[in-house]
Amino acid sequence: MHVSERLLQLYAETNAATRTKLQDTIKQNLGDGKSLSVSFEELTGSVNNALPKEEKSATDFAAWIKDGKKDATFLPYYVSLLEMYDTVLNKEATVLQSAPVDKTTVNETPVVDKSTETVPKSTTVDAPKVEDKPTASKPRYTPEVPVPSRAERAKYQRTIEPARPRRKSGKWIGVLFFLALLIGGGYLGYPYVMDLLEPKQEATVVEETPKPDPEPVVQEPETNYVWLASKNVNLVSEPNGTTVTYIGDIGDRYEVMKEENNHVEVDLDGTTAWAPLDAVTKEWPTRELTDSTLLDWVNTNLDNDWLGESIPDFFAMNEAGLTETIGAPYGRETDALNAYAFYNGGFFVIQQDKVHAIDWTNTQTTRDAFSSLGEPVLETEDAVVYESETYSLRLFEGTNGQTRVRLTEK
What we know:
Shape: rod-shaped
Helix content: 25-40%
Number of strands: 17
Strand order of the largest sheet: 10-11-12-13-17-16-15-14
Number of helices: 11
Strand content: 15-25%
Distance between the termini: 25 Å
Largest sheet: 8 strands, antiparallel
Structural class: alpha+beta
């Protein structure tokens, strides 16, 4: 088990008063300067050759505690003493008054006038008047044959009667033509006349509002991400450095800033840190696992008596709301990114004053219990990761047979 994970377990098993007494004892022993291995032997009566021989003072230890336990030099020394706190405190005659734990709180978008164009009123075109056709002049009668003389008429004994005049048919033809024209014109012109008699509404012409030109789309640069591919990855302050800025867990996702010297620089909530390339992956598969299926597994396979509320409700709480709901924690710690609130049964990870993850500690849950969820997103020798659309469920296996389960809101 990684020493940082062991530290989390020890913090879940001990109270703040005990840890404060132990820290005061360590400061008193270190004094102005002393080798960490010698200090360990004096405090416990046991020898630990794995501890560094480098001399550290009480001032260095206090600064390490205040800085969030980033330097890896003190970490194994402090974890070893925390495991044997009973021996250390029983051996020490005087226990200093515990100092109050510093608590930090992370403080946390043309009217266009409708012009009406008046349509000119329809004009009436009067049909041309039909003039009467002038009557033809009467022709002078001319006999077709010469008029016989009286003697001839007497000879033939027949009476010559005057010729009949021609009928005046042209006048009637003109009248009939005029009537036909009048009737036909009335038939054809009736709709136009009625249209003139009906009241007209002035037609309005609505001009379409011109559409504005679409704004140009700004092409944003593509964001690259990496995921931690192993458990407990040390994110250091510089490439190949030893100062640990933050210890990340498998499945954590970070935005990539740049790559250098087999390391990748990531954005750690406004702070930059460096992760080794062999501990990250740029490909993260997806699985068809629903939120309800994943939450049903958590409610069935984990002990949730210490929570007392529906699990999704916690992810909408800040630290004050959490305390109001289930009470004050018995312990609280911070690091460069998160705050940790410890309760009997597990602890909450609080990021930017909002519950980010829930951890169940010292569980007996095995890897086989996760098989009902299907194929995991990522699996290693000591960890396994499942993900739905909203949540990430992770199992961490320790060397002592105990396991820790974390549910994170993505």
